[in-house]
Amino acid sequence: MEELTLTTPALLFSAISLIMLAYTNRFLAYAAVIRNLHDRYLEKMDASLIAQIKNLKLRLNLTRWMQIFGIVSLLLCVLTMFLIYIDYHILAVWIFGIALILLLLSLALLVREIQISIRALSLHLSDIESHLKKK
After folding, report:
1. For the residues 61-84, what does the mean pLDDT come to?
2. What's the whole-model pTM score?
3. How far is residue 66's CA from residue 60's CA, in Å, rounded to a whole number?
4. Band of pLDDT at residue 94, cut at 50, 70 and 90
5. Distance between CA atoms of 11 and 30, rounded to whole angstroms?
6. Beta carbons of 72 and 84 less than 8 angstroms apart
7. Is 66 in contact with 109 (CB distance < 8 Å)?
8. Average of per-residue pLDDT values in the chain
9. Nearest Cα to 91, choosing from 72, 76, 69?
């Protein structure tokens, strides 16, 4: 196996930073939608809004765990670099491996969240289509 150098974990910095930016944008979009749904629910207590709120709550939860795993992955990359710097190479390799696994988990949660989002949007589209057919 090739020796782990400082540049290897450093390469993940930009990737993880971009991923975290995307996760934050998703979070902010959900926050806006939830505030909108909250106001709509207070005006008209519709059962369909409850289902949308539950769906958003699940997606928000997934986004939170995506962010947590991504942040911990980044922290472990920094720790890896420090361990390499102080010549603890074996431990650095293991910590870097854990960082990669956490990044994989974060991305897997993203895939799951996208599936849930697509299903929710499909329900909205089918609702619109059913209204169009009635007219």
Report:
1. 93
2. 0.78
3. 10
4. very high
5. 30
6. no
7. yes
8. 85
9. 76
Does residue 49 form part of some domain?
yes
Distance CA 69, CA 2 (A): 26
Amino acid found at 4: L
For residue 29, the SS3 value is: helix
Q: Is the pLDDT of residue 2 over 70?
A: no
**Residue 39 counted as domain residue:** yes
Residue 24 in domain: yes
**In one letter, which amino acid is 29?**
A
Domain count, the chain: 1
Q: What is the largest CA-CA distance in the chain?
A: 73
The span from the CA of 30 to the CA of 36, in Å, is 10
Closest CA to 49 of 30, 34, 27, 64: 34
